[in-house]
Amino acid sequence: MIKRGRLLNRPPKSLEEIYFSEIRPQLYENHAHHDQYGVRKGTTLAEHLDSACQFILTVSHIAQVPEDKRPLLLAATAVHDLNKLDSQGRNVKTLARDKDFLKEELKKAFVIGFVATDDDLELVRKLIERHSGHNVSDGARFLPEDPNIERWAAMLTAADLFDLGIPDAQRFRKIETELTVAFSRKCNLFRVRLSEDKGYITSLLLGACEEVLQKYGFHPIAIFPDSELFEGSNLPNVDLTKEIAAVWQSKIDQVFGNNIEKLVRPTKDGIKVTYQAIQQNVDEVLVNIQALLERKKAGYKSDKIVKDVSKWGDNAGEDAIKKAAELGLLPVSSAEEFAISEGLKAAYLSYREAGLTPKEAWDKIAHHTGISEHQRLALEPFNGQYGRPLFAAKAAINGIEGINEALKESFKLRNNSTENSEEIEVSEEMILAVNRIVNFPFANQLIGINELDAYVEANPRQRCSLGATSSEIDELISANMPPGTKVQAFSNRLPGGISAEPKRQADSIAALAYQLMTVGANFPKVSKQEPLYLHLALPKGSAPELLRIWRELLQQLAAINTEGGTVTVDQLQLYRNHQLEFKANKVVGAALPKRPDFVHTSVIIPLVWGDINASLALLKSLRLGLEISLSLDIGFPFTLSSNMEVDLFDDVYGRVEGIPAALQPLLGNGQYYQSQDAEKILERLRCLGELAISVASIQKSDDCLYDLSRTCDRPIELYFVLLRWILREQDEPNLSVIWSRICQPLNTLMESFMPNDNSLLTKYLKEAAQIAAEANLKGSSFKRTAQTEPFTAFITAVKNQKPYLDLEVMFAALTEQYYIRLDRINREYHVGVKKLEQVKRYYQVLRKLYEEVYSARPEKLLSDQKTLEAAYLFFLEEARTKLKNKSEDDSDETNTTV
Questions:
Q1: For 74-91, what is the mean pLDDT?
Q2: CA 756 – CA 484 distance, rounded (Å)
């Protein structure tokens, strides 16, 4: 089992934070491999205890249990299945009354700190003994006791039933019965289910559902990847769809309104300000306009301005130009004046949005900017939007300050003109979308037939490029669609077709979902790239408090980049120490959500890795996703995909879409049914990361990681790739030191790929390396070529093999030649018969390798020459390390004996 990391590193403040940061990880470390049976088959004891603890935290909060008693309920829940914790098979009642055993289990679960007194321990005992139908069977039933104990025991019983493996209808009835006792009122449970997940827009919809239902007295009690569970006294008798749609619409409007830089747009007709921007923050709008004017000033081109002046001057006539010049209305001639003219144009457009005529708009602009009445009249012949700003810039003596005053007045007029209008009704499209995406237990319209009709009757040229074909289809340019969206109709490629960019058809809600993503995620401020999307869902039955903690964590991580861009992980810490340490980056990393309400049952995190190939981006994204997903304190089901929309999370723990064939030996088929399957893939990626950082520089580690990953279809070739990278980075590497760094991850990786490695290839190579290490069969130096000298002699002999000589002669000659070579190297010491026997045994092993693995076919062996030499070199280092360790152990034993 690999060591899983943690995400929550800050000091806990509330009981819930203490649970998720300290207690929950301990439950998984203690019981993650303790399988259950019967109705809970398929889950572990850790998952059951975790589910019950989260449920008790939520229910005790709703029931307003005193804060000094809630920790005791949590402590009892963390160990409530005492019979499953005992190795002797004793029952719950016996174990609960064994104080030493109970204290020991509370200590193991990290909850002993909550049990301060004997009275606390007695309360924990009573709750444990009475859960799951256990009756009061001692004399305490005849003594007065706190009447709340019955309510609290009912909460623990409900928590124990919460993850029972029976149909929801039966399970909910049992839980409702217990919660009716716990809350001292009628209790009903119902689920709000999702039929599809479209990312941020779906999270806003769930937030709207929660807001409306809480107004009617319902509390969220548990969150699932595809739904949310609520409890309340009575189900509402009215259809809340329209009310939810209205709240949903307002949340969407707030998102776009809070992104003012997206709503103050420079266009070819001037700077335009949408109504949502001035609704939010007028000062921020003015700051954005000022920034755009500075950009206009920097982009000033005199030749283009001369053409515009000539065009609009000719339209006004020579007399108008002459009269304007007499009054000081000269055309723009500098970058500063051009910026002022663009500001005048922006003010004019804003006044026009407020409903003013061109004359009324310019009267107000003249008043604020200092243009005299005579000058104002002289400007009349010029075009109001394009001509007058070019000739009035020099006369606007109040400059930018005057323009700001005009803009402020226009914004106020626009607000006033809207305040008196009647409230805008929620569109039918939004109501239909709520009905389509969310399933409520109360009445709603059956719209499936409408969806089918829209699909059948749609014009083939209007089939959707994004989303489902429906009655509401938008035509959008590529900038408003996800990268790589295909075009369905190419009207610009047909005879007589338009010359503009082809439009893409999109279901309006799907298009809005993508636009919310572009506005709501902290994308890097560079050209558009195709991201990978990491979809993380809260685990089944998560407490609503976990959602708050998760939202706060994402906000803290996003705040690392003060400029509002991506955050990336420290690659050295990730590869070397398996730790997630985030830092700001302008180009690559995770585009975390800007707002907490973009996170609900799940969250989409776009991952951008810059100019690298798709396979490497997949590897980096999956490594980051698995480190987050398998954290001990939260633990998320995940999907990694190039699509923003994916299927809802089902019983599969993790899914990776689009794995290329070259990476399938490493990553499998992309379906990980349990967290243990995902752990196996994470262990492989960790080993590859360690190897990459050990043999390559940090700048080249990704390239090395990619090379190693592609080699996993034949793991023996990993040795050759590693050696190639070592020699690329160092001319004369110290292989002994390098082996000490890579042996553990490399052996772990080989064990993962070949858990029962009985292949003759590795067996004979390792046997030959062991003989070479024991007999010191090598050249006259410590260089790499000298270390592999006897093996290289074998390869050379095979390469020069004559067809008329059999293998007996070839290997006899090889043995004799290398024996003579050793004798020549060691002239001072005669090598003797023992060395000859060792050389003979060495080449006998290689002969078996040649005959049994390669069928004595030279071309097959020579095609693997580099791989075999690299593997032999590493096996030789491994054998020497074992001999050294054995020698040190023998020396220690001798010293101890003496």
A1: 85
A2: 44
